[in-house]
Automatic annotation (TrEMBL):
Residues 28-95 form the CDGP domain. This is CDGP domain-containing protein. Residues 1-27 form the signal peptide. InterPro entries: CDGP_dom.
């Protein structure tokens, strides 16, 4: 019985060590300027990643108006081209 408990505990500790030593996902964000946020997802095996940009969008309503965040996502990376400079700056992956 003691061997089973010790063996199970050893296996659990080994699995936990592998999880904590795994490399972190390489993703990051920048905030401010004329955008609310610009965030890159992890780099895929083909070298591309998804970039999502949130920008304020003005909603007029009679005598009042408000800003609502509008989010757009595009594919970035080698062989990808975005004519929208909001997406292309920076042209490299944003690391966190």
């Amino acid at each position: 019985m003691k061997r089973c408990i010790v063996g199970g505990l050893a296996a659990l500790l080994m699995a936990g060590g592998q999880i904590t030593s795994a490399p972190p996902a390489s993703a990051g964000c920048v905030y401010g300027g004329n955008i609310i946020s610009k965030c890159d997802g992890p780099i895929q095996p083909d070298g591309t990643w998804q970039r999502c940009v949130a920008a304020p969008h003005l909603i007029p309503n009679g005598a009042s108006s408000w800003l609502v965040p509008e989010r757009q996502c595009n594919q970035m990376g080698p062989g990808q081209f975005s004519a929208d400079l909001g997406f292309a700056d920076p042209p490299t992956h944003i690391d966190g």
